[in-house]
Structures are given as structure tokens and as C-alpha cells.
Amino acid sequence: MDLGLKGRVAIVAASSAGLGKAVAMGLAKEGARLAICSRSEARINSAAEHIRQSTGAEVLAQVTDVTSYEQIRTLVASTLDRYGRLDVCVANAGGPPAKPFAETTIEDWQAAVNLNFMSTLYFAREVLPLMQKQKWGRLIAITSTSAKQPMDGLILSNAVRAGVTGLVKSLSNEYARDNVLVNNVCPGSTRTARVDEIARALAGREGASPEAIQQRWASQIPLGRLGTPEEFANLVVFLASERASFITGVSIPVDGGFVKGI
After folding, report:
1. Distances (CA, A) of 93 to 20, 90, 174, 248
2. Cα separation of 77 and 72, whole Å?
3. Which of 111, 145, 184, 207 is exposed most, by the fewest CB atoms within 10 A?
4. Separation between Cα atoms, residue 107 and residue 116, nearest integer Å
5. 24, 51 in Cβ contact below 8 A?
6. What is the DSSP-derived secondary structure letter of residue 104?
7. What distance in Å separates the CA atoms of residue 60 and residue 110, rounded to the nearest whole number?
């Protein structure tokens, strides 16, 4: 299937590793030109070189803290300077720490809102007017299955990701007539450094091993295993494409069947 992404320009945030890098790699393989970012110059440059060597894609790498509106504005401006257009934006960021409510602080909540909700809002403010003007665009937010089915020990993520879901749905209604599609993709347990970090945190709290925590998660997934970043990226790449032209305002889990709701 020709996804119609050849020559398109995509920003993929938090893309030096894990889900973000897998999405960037998937878009590059389809012929998209990329702008990728993370807070670490060494890591984002390494990721950019890996993508270039693997796919031959053109990649702009830029250090960006997605909790800073000014830095996101600079990233978008740099992308326009380099490529002259912007077609796809994948809003992504790491998740807040795993904690029960009693252990959270006001600072934890403010940081979680800034990291996951405000960063998505910042990207939306910068990219949606551009996409609206050209009558074509894709804004895809990466959140978590916790937005659909809250998970024990992840109250910060459960609450803030749900806010992102509401924002995405509202934006999809406002921009649909301009052929700008806004969707939400919800990864379940996927073998990334983030999932390993959560497993270690829960293991320390429960007196178990991280391996036991991950085995417990896998046992709750109908497919009986954790996913891979590439499996997650496949859906994001499709939603970014021409072929997803009648899909907007949805929140799709990529979770091996973990979410129990219909």
C-alpha cells in the first residue's frame, strides 16, 4: 500500500529513543522528511544519524525541551526554514513518575501537566494554523492506555493523559473541515526504557523484581506479551498517511487487547 508520505514533512517529538524514534524511523522508511528532537544533543544527533544511514531520509535534529513553548516555536520555525512546509506533527513526551496519590506533590502535578498536556497544547498552537492554511495536516498525540483504563500507581498519567484525550477530540472537531486530522494513539505495555523504569519503580515499592512486574503485565494482555516500538509505530505512520483520510478524533490503543472497554 502506498501511504502517500513520500516528500511529506513530519515533526516527531521526543524521538531519540523508544516510541518516538520508532515512529520517526517508520515515517522515514515511507519517504517522509523529518525534524526530530529531544533534550539531549548527543542522543538526538545519534538517532538522526541512525535514521539517515538506515533509510536515506533527510533529518533535521534539534535539541528541544517540549515543556518550553519558546523551544517548540523554535523547532517549528527551524522545520519551516529547512523544508518550507509542515504536514505531520507527532506530539510526544516521556511520562510522569509512577506514584500513588498520597506520595504525589503539587510540584509533581504541575510537572506532569507541563510535560504531557501543555507540550501537546504548544505543538497544537504552532502547527494547526499552518496545516489549516494548506488544507492538509495530521496532528497525532501519543498518550497511554491509562487514558482509557486507569492503571494502579500511575495516577499522574491517568489524570493528565485523559486531559490530552479531551483536547485532541475537541481539536479534531474544530479542524476537520480543513482536512486536518487530529488523533490520539495510546500505547500499552511496550518494551521501552520508560516501561522498564515503571517496572523498577513498582518493583521497589512491592518488593518484587522488575521481571516479575513485566511478567504480570504480560499475563494481563490477551496476546500474552509486551509490544514492540515498531508495532506501535505502524499505526502512527498509517494515521499520518493519505490512507487515513476519514479517521479523526479517535483514541486508538495499541495494547495487545489489554483495555477491557468496548
Report:
1. 8, 10, 24, 21
2. 9
3. 207
4. 14
5. yes
6. -
7. 31
Q: What's at 51, amino acid-wise?
A: I
Tell me which residue of 78, 82, 91, 83 sits closest to 8, measured CA to CA: 83
**pLDDT tens, position by position, 7-38:** 999 999 999 999 999 999 999 999 999 999 99
Q: What CA–CA distance (Å, rounded) separates 28 from 55?
A: 6
Give CA separation, 81 vs 86, 115, 137, 194, in Å.
10, 26, 18, 33
Q: How would residue 205 be classed by pLDDT, with cut points 50, 70 and 90? A: confident
- DSSP H helices in 56-105: 69-83
Angle, helices 155-175/119-134, rounded to nearest 10 degrees: 20
Q: How far apart are CA 42 and CA 52, in angstroms?
A: 15
Backbone phi, then psi, for 65, in 5-degree steps?
Answer: -95, 115
pTM: 0.94
